[in-house]
């Protein structure tokens, strides 16, 4: 499975970074930096927290 961020949906809330700074990174304006990486289930707690924290549903695991 892949963890990705749809940067077109990201609105710069920086919530993903706030809950999981080891997984997510943001730019100077609070927008998430692109991610495209393989992940396995069960999801790491930090990844799951970041997905749940995003109000724009910009973070996905498929
Ligand atoms: S929480 Fe969602 S909208 Fe906010 S910076 Fe992260 S990916 Fe973007």
Automatic annotation (TrEMBL):
Keywords of this entry: 3Fe-4S, Electron transport, Iron, Iron-sulfur, Metal-binding, Transport
Top-level taxon of origin: Bacteria
Gene Ontology molecular function terms on file: 3 iron, 4 sulfur cluster binding; metal ion binding
Cofactors named for this entry: [3Fe-4S] cluster
Entry protein name: Ferredoxin
């Amino acid at each position: 499975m892949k963890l990705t961020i749809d940067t077109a949906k990201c609105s710069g809330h920086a919530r993903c970074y706030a809950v999981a700074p080891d997984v997510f990174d943001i730019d100077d304006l609070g927008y998430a930096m692109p991610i495209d990486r393989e992940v396995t289930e069960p999801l790491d707690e930090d990844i799951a927290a970041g997905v749940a924290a995003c109000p724009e549903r910009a973070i996905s695991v498929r």
